[in-house]
Amino acid sequence: MKKIEAIIKPFKLDDVKEALNEIGIQGMTISEVKGYGRQKGHKEIYRGAEYVVDFIPKIKIEIVVASEQADLVVEKICDAANTGKIGDGKIFIFPVEEAIRVRTGEKGTDAI
Amino acid sequence: MNEQYMQILTTLKQDREDLMASFDKFPVIDFMRRHSRILDTYFQQRFEESMVGPRLGLNKNPYAIVALGGYGREEQCVHSDVDILFLFKKHVPDEAASLIQEIIYPLWDIGLEVGYATRTLHECVNMARKDYEILTPILDARFICGMSLLFSQLMTAAREKILDKHSKKIVDWLVKSNTERHRRFGDSTYLLEPNLKEGQGGLRDYHTMLWIGRIKLNMRQARDLEYFGFLSHDEYLAVREALSFIWGVRNQLHLETGRKVDQLYFETQIKLASSMKFKSTNGLQPVEKFLGTLHSKMDFMKQQHLMFLNEHGFVKKSRYTLKHKNNRKIENIEIFDDTLKFTTSEAIIRSPELLIKIFEESARHKLPLSVEAKRMVNEFSYLVNDRFRSSDSVVKSFEFVLKEPAPTFNVLREMLNTGFLVKLIPEMRGIANRIQYDEYHLYPVDKHLLRTVQAVKKFGSDLDESGCMLCAKIWKRLKNRKLLLWAALLHDIGKGVPQKDHAKAGAKITRNILSRFGYDPEEIDTIAFLVQEHLLLVKIATRRDIHDEETAIHCARVIKKVSRLQMLYLLTIVDCISTGPNAWNEWTATLLRDLFLKISNILKKGELATQRAVKTSAHKKEVVLASATSKAEAAELEKLFHSMSPRYLLYMPDDEILKDIELFRKLGDRSFAWDIARDEKTNSRTVRICAQDQPGLFSKIAGTFTLNNLDILNAQIFTWRNNLALDIFHVKPPPDQIFEKERWASTEKDFQAALAGDMDLPNALAKKMSGYQSIRPKASKLQHRIVVDNHSSSFFTIVEVFTYDFPGLLFTVTDALFRSGLDIWVAKISTKVDQVVDVFYVRDFDGQKIDSEDQAVALKAAIEARLPEIV
Description:
The complex is a heterodimer of chains A (112) and B (871). Chain A is α+β, with helices and mostly antiparallel strands and 112 residues long. Chain A has a single domain, classed as Alpha-Beta Plaits (2-Layer Sandwich), CATH 3.30.70.120. Chain A is 20% helix and 36% strand. Chain A has helices at 13-22, 70-81; strands spanning 2-8, 29-35, 42-46, 49-53, 56-65, 90-95. Chain A has a 4-stranded antiparallel beta sheet, with helices on one face. Chain A has a two-stranded antiparallel sheet with strand order 3-4. Chain A starts with a strand and ends in a 17-residue tail after the last strand. The mean pLDDT of chain A is 90. With 871 residues, chain B is α+β, with helices and mostly antiparallel strands. Chain B has 4 domains: 3-169, Beta Polymerase, domain 2 (2-Layer Sandwich), CATH 3.30.460.10; 186-311, Nucleotidyltransferases  domain 2 (Four Helix Bundle (Hemerythrin (Met), subunit A)); 317-424, Hydrophobic Seed Protein (Orthogonal Bundle); 634-866, no CATH class. Helix content of chain B is 55%, strand content 11%. Chain B has 39 helices and 14 strands. In chain B, the strands form 3 sheets. Chain B has an 8-stranded antiparallel beta sheet. Chain B has a 4-stranded mixed beta sheet with strand order 3-2-1-4, sandwiched between helices. In chain B, a hairpin with a 2-residue loop joins β5 (333-336) and β6. The longest helix of chain B has 38 residues, at 148-185. The termini of chain B are far apart.
């Protein structure tokens, strides 16, 4: 199993969700996060005062899938979240040792 | 266990089951009483048949079985605890344990939640005196069986030794622990998952009223609240009705979940709505109607409870005492005991405007209306008609209430609770207690609107919930605050219209309301606009790319004015804050603020978002579309419009747009396509170039021209959003016009080579330039000037170069920009005689502005270094 963690632009969430639904991904965890990478923060001036956005709002998606599905999921996320501009985000893939469904105690891919 | 015991238990079980099965057949109050009676019977029979009882020496140490709490009040809900006290006269005998085993254990076995205590009279009184948690159930105590004298002694002792001596202390404790409880369980009149018992507006509020009545006035039954004059007859009936509903819900909830539960969880609500026979009407789901009714009943209980405490002096008086002394006097309204009262009811009939004046005074003095005054407002609100509504002084009074900063004292809520607000603005009826069944909207629509107004008034105060200094700043400078407050009050009024876009419907209703109040058209326009667009910013901020200039331009064009944007921004924030914790957080705040600042910048600049800009662009699209000869072509053009930047559409004349489209079609897979037009009048050439954009494209074109002795007079470049560059150069024709064609052909070849990277343009140019002399300004001794402007645009760094014309200037400057890692998105190059002003909108190759000070300085230096010295 793999855990796929993707950081994307907020307005791309619906597109990504839809793309993943299409390939049968039912569940995911999303969180509103802030940070920066190559797309650094920026300043805005309002009536002489500076307003700095250090950390840019992004959405983090976490999904755990069977290993053989991981490539497809990554591909779908890449396609859906791409605007061609800076700040489109990053995807990280981690190995997952085990998954357990709390209610039933099912393990492995049955639990995801 | 002997047979007789078994029989008693079986009877209890059967009776309870029968009763539960016929839950629907009785009014709920009846049902609870019957339930209590069934339990009473069990205890009475067991008492008589007890085997342990006789061994206790009843004569020497008599005991009584006493019902406490809800069971004591005969309000026994399906799965609520059954609280029992075994009261002994002198001491608790050792056999008490077997007595409990005999009477209580079987109840546990059949699944009843029974709580019991075995105490002596003395212990009871002592413990209750020290711990009021023990005292309150005793306030509800009811004798079931055993030695009745003992029970009377307990009640007498409690009265004489505790209640009479410490009544104030106990009541204070009750009020305090009530406040604490409300804090813990929340206000049930708002919550998505209200707690029927412990929340504000829950059953505990009613118990508290009852207890205080018992402590202070020795009341015996609930009806005494009316007999002792705490409630009017009608109010008592309404309280009864509200309680019945809440009890009904609670019992139904117990029945359906099969256990004791007082919190109305999400998953139970839909089922409950259907078993309580709510039907869907008027676009409302049954569950929304159910929750709406429940909230309104609990709200009523909450109000009664607050009024009860207020009216009867059980809470501390407001700290505004005496503040009103120096203020003006309003005829027929007086301040008495820190509340506002009408002097007589006739006065209201003579002058109905008193109905709103009293609220105005309430807002002015921060004093509440007396209970009697509220009753009178409610009773006389039939006097509110269209003439009343359109009276200037009524509108003024209402505006006063609306505007008066009163972060902790909500006069509007009082207006709503007395029913006056709905009379004044009848359109509000459709949203009163209207629930939206989801996890996002925490409050019924009417309460949400009032909270939104409150949140507006809190801007810049200590209670400001926005967490945003910018908001306070905008609020402080806002000119016509009234408009924002009206919009806050009305923004969701369209939710009363089933299945329609509520913002749009709301704008229409808003217009009606405000014209009835006699507002002038301009103010109405603004308020209706705010209502109609109140979701715009939050939708755009979360669903569009706010780092794309087009997004901000789109918003700016909808909003049109800076003042509207400011109000809309504030409205968006208070709307989020008042919706619930899921709608407002730091993350959303950052997105919204960023969008606001970007739109604000565009509106202040003006050029791209003016009415005229919108019209011009639209007109050009029409003209261009009209040229289409087929549907497919029109569709293709529509698609192309999406690629054209707002700037391009605004500044490019329509015939030239058509030319560019022509070029775009010609381009195909080639790296560039161009068109050269002669202008005989000025003897110049216009070169339009359409090319796949690449870093340094502009400098390559400029360099190629210079290399071929084509002097650039001015130039404009635009970038389409599909990564296509559209560049227009006005150049002087080549010096040798006989071979012009050949010159263009060689230019084209050079350009192709430069684009493909086959030619070292800088080197070739440097060689060529070495023959030129340094420049000599004709008129003055001004220096070169380079300005790096990061303020004017949120999306581009604007570089302005003021200098003197010299051959190769444009190449030199644009090459310097390219080498500094910048992309040119828009450029305007103009030359007047020998004075040059070049403006470039640039971003780095990642699409970001150059907004650090160091970068700006380095950029200036890089350009400066390439400009020839002025001698």
